[in-house]
Amino acid sequence: xxxxxxxxxxxxxxxxxxxxxxxxxxxxxxxxxxxxxxxxxxxxxxxxxxxxxxxxxxxxxxxxxxxxxxxxxxxxxxxxxxxxxxxxxxxxxxxxxxxxxxxxxxxxxxxxxxxxxxxxxxxxxxxxxxxxxxxxxxxxxx
Length: 142
Prior knowledge:
By secondary structure, the protein is mainly alpha-helical. The protein has two domains: 51 residues, no CATH class; 89 residues, no CATH class. It has a two-stranded antiparallel sheet with strand order 1-2.
C-alpha cells in the first residue's frame, strides 16, 4: 500500500504512518514473541492515545514544563513532610531526557505527549502511622 498516506500530513495521518511502520516490523519479525509484544504495544497505544492530557509542540517544551513541575511537586511535598512528623521525601529529579526519549520511543511510538512520568518523587516514612497520615492527606487532595 505504498503512497496511501502521501496526500495528507495531519496528526492522525502521521500516527498512521508510524503505526504502519511498526506493524510491518512486527509482522516481519522472526521472533513471534517480539512480534506479539510490539502488537500489544500498538494496541495499548491506541487505547491510551485518546486519553492524552497534554499538548506540547515539541519534546524540549514538554521537558522544560516537566522540570518546572518537578520543582512545584517538591515544594508541595516538602510542605506536607514538614507538617507531618516522621515523613521525609526523596527527590530523584525528573527522568533524564535520554531515558524519557527512550521510553517515548519504546512505549508510545514516538508520541512525546503520551509520557506521564517524567516528574517523580516519593515520601518515606518510618512507621505505619506516618504512612497513614500521608494517605489521609492524599485522600483529601483527591
